[in-house]
């Protein structure tokens, strides 16, 4: 054996000879295999590592790289390439000495040492790291093991998350509802996802009871009920819930908030599935939002017509009845709609409203009532986009073809065929001239609030396809 060692050593230091090739190819692997610890008589760890590598003694190669050469990256590569369980454990132990639990677990998991990685994570409180590392490739058994670990630690959100991924929907829902707090709603999001996947009526009823407050006496944000119905494709129930939500916001005087909520839910449902009441409420709230925009830039006639649309439905704005009626009188008077101004001023003179009028407007409103003016600026007509029948500009129903006419989100007036455009973000229609004019002073879409400039808006030559998609008959 000593002779073989000498031969190998001398051959290895004679590059270029055939004997070196012969030694490398035949003698050294056999010698290394028989020795198991090649060149241990020398202090050259690098040469020893190379010999172990040639001998395909991966475990000792890894040991040399870790313990003597300080090359953990190379050791990781050798362990992974050769699927060495012992080598992977050595790398993990090396990383543990450095306190790098995350990398140690990651390495074991990537080396197909799942059980060792799980045990290490469990021992050092790194289960979340382990769960993140195994990701979408985890087996149902692994996912359940993780879920049970979190369950034992009363980490309900994480337990529910992994029960959900393993298909244990009842357990997942139980943990999500146990974890939900007033500040953290992420568990409710996952509870809805659980029900949409489970398709289980019992679990669905449990979640609805929880959202309605039947379980703990605390009703939850109705948005979650809307989202649950949408996830289950129960669009009628979702629409009813949306109407209830926005009605409550309106009743509290939060009109912009109600508008944005209703718009979002309307977009989620889609124009074809949204009921007429929902569309009508959105129109009213949008008209209210547009009033301030047009009054600010001096469009008093548009502001007056928008206010009259709102005032005709004043019961839906209970917190601001008198201010809205007061603004309607003032804007109608400015726009020379004197008969309309008189009509709404007379409403304000009713006992239930009169004492609530702002003192700075009282005399002006009383003057409108005492000295009525019969003049009313005649409203312009424009053609119905469906049948071309002449319809008042602010009228949204065509008496000829019985269609509800889409409204312009920039002016509130009805759309016309030869002046058609849409918001590139929300796809709601707007008269091209009105929209581009509005964007000279405003920087966002009045419907979806996304940033826009006039150049973003394009004239649509033929809106037939759009009309076919949204046209509905009474």
UniProtKB/TrEMBL annotation:
Its main location: cytoplasm. The keyword Oxidoreductase does not apply. GO terms for biological process: cilium assembly; intraciliary retrograde transport. It comes from the Eukaryota. InterPro entries: TPR_IF140/IFT172/WDR19, WDR19/dyf-2, Znf_IFT121-like. Residues 44-179 form the IF140/IFT172/WDR19 TPR domain. Residues 406-451 form the IFT121-like zinc finger domain. The keyword Cytoplasm applies. Keywords: Cell projection, Cilium, Cilium biogenesis/degradation, Cytoplasm, Cytoskeleton, Repeat, WD repeat. Signal peptide: none annotated. One of its GO terms (cellular component) is cilium. It is found in: Cytoplasm, Cytoskeleton, Cilium basal body. This is WD repeat-containing protein 19.
């Amino acid at each position: 054996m000593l002779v073989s060692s000498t031969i190998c050593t001398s051959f290895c230091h004679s590059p270029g000879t055939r004997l070196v090739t012969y030694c490398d190819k035949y003698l050294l692997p056999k010698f290394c295999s028989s020795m198991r610890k090649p060149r241990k008589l020398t202090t050259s760890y690098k040469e020893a590592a190379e010999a172990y590598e040639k001998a395909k003694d991966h475990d000792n190669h890894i040991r040399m790289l870790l313990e003597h050469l300080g090359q953990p990256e190379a050791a990781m590569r050798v362990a992974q390439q050769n699927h060495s369980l012992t080598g992977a454990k050595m790398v993990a132990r090396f990383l543990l000495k450095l306190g790098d639990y995350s990398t140690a677990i990651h390495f074991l998991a990537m080396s197909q040492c799942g059980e060792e990685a799980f045990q290490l994570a469990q021992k050092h409180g790194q289960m979340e790291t382990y769960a993140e590392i195994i990701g979408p490739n985890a087996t149902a058994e692994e996912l359940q093991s993780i879920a049970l670990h979190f369950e034992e630690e009363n980490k309900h959100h994480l337990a529910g998350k992994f029960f959900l991924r393993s298909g244990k929907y009842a357990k997942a829902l139980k943990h999500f509802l146990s974890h939900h707090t007033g500040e953290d709603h992420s568990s409710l999001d996952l509870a809805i996802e659980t029900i949409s996947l489970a398709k289980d009526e019992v679990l669905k009823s449990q979640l609805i009871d929880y959202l309605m407050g039947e379980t703990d006496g605390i009703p939850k944000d109705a948005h979650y009920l809307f989202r649950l119905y949408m996830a289950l494709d129960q669009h009628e129930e979702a629409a009813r819930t949306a109407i209830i939500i926005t009605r409550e916001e309106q009743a509290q005087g939060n009109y912009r908030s109600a508008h944005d909520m209703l718009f979002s839910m309307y977009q989620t449902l889609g124009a074809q599935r949204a009921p007429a009441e929902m569309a009508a409420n959105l129109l009213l709230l949008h008209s209210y939002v547009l009033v301030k925009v047009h009054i600010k830039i001096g469009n008093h006639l548009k502001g007056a017509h928008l206010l009259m649309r709102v005032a005709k439905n004043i019961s839906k704005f209970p917190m601001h009845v008198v201010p809205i009626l007061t603004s309607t009188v003032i804007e109608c008077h400015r726009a020379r709609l004197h008969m309309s101004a008189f009509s709404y001023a007379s409403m304000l003179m009713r006992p239930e409203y009169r004492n609530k009028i702002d003192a700075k407007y009282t005399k002006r409103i009383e003057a409108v009532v005492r000295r009525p003016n019969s003049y009313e600026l005649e409203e312009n007509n424009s053609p119905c986009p469906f049948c071309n029948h002449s319809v008042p500009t602010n009228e949204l129903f065509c008496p000829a073809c019985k269609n509800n006419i889409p409204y312009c989100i920039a002016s509130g007036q009805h759309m016309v065929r030869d002046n058609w455009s849409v918001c590139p973000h929300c796809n709601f229609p707007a008269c091209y001239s009105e929209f581009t004019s509005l964007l000279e002073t405003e920087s966002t879409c009045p419907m979806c609030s996304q940033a826009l400039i006039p150049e973003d808006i394009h004239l649509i030559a033929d809106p037939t396809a759009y009309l076919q998609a949204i046209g509905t008959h009474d």
